[in-house]
UniProtKB/TrEMBL annotation:
Gene3D superfamilies: Winged helix-like DNA-binding domain superfamily/Winged helix DNA-binding domain (1.10.10.10). InterPro entries: Tscrpt_reg_Rrf2 (IPR000944), WH-like_DNA-bd_sf (IPR036388), WH_DNA-bd_sf (IPR036390). Keywords: DNA-binding. Pfam families: Rrf2. It comes from Dongia soli. This is Rrf2 family transcriptional regulator.
Length: 146
């Protein structure tokens, strides 16, 4: 399984907001600090705001901040909100499945089980867990400072 850049950027954005919760951050600033596409980050921000993970304050002095405490933002929920789906193989999509062996194939069950286990593991962690190590977070802030 591979997460999309959309999810990767979403997790990076949330980590920064959790790391610096007393500051408002602009898309421009975050894109510059992470050296990622501003346009892509705007789409990510829209997804996160729609899901309630991020508050977007408009106007002069506006910016982004967490929409709720980091301890309430569960990683599995973020991944579910930012990924298009978890169809690892064609037969997961019952509407467009054209696999001729699907009716007798034993692969689907184990792959579904693995996907559920993957999400269950992420459900055990919150955003706060990602930024809980002060030493690592201090180094991350230094890297992002430029």
């Amino acid at each position: 399984m591979r997460l999309t850049l959309h999810t990767d950027y979403a997790l990076r954005l949330l980590m920064l907001l959790a790391l610096e919760p007393d500051e408002l951050h602009t898309i421009e600033e975050i894109a510059s600090r992470y050296r990622i596409s501003r346009n892509h980050l705007m789409k990510v921000t829209q997804t996160l705001a729609s899901a309630g993970f991020v508050d977007s304050l408009r106007g002069r002095g506006g910016g982004l901040r967490l929409g709720k405490p980091g301890g309430e933002i569960i990683l599995g929920d973020v991944v579910r909100a930012t990924e298009d789906g978890f169809n690892l193989v064609e037969c997961f999509d019952r509407k467009s499945n054209t696999c001729v062996v699907a009716p007798v194939c034993g692969l689907r069950g184990p792959l579904e089980e693995a996907t559920l286990a993957f999400l269950a593991a992420l459900d055990r962690y919150s955003l706060a867990d990602l930024v809980a190590n002060p030493g690592s977070m201090r180094r991350m802030k230094m890297l992002l400072a430029g």
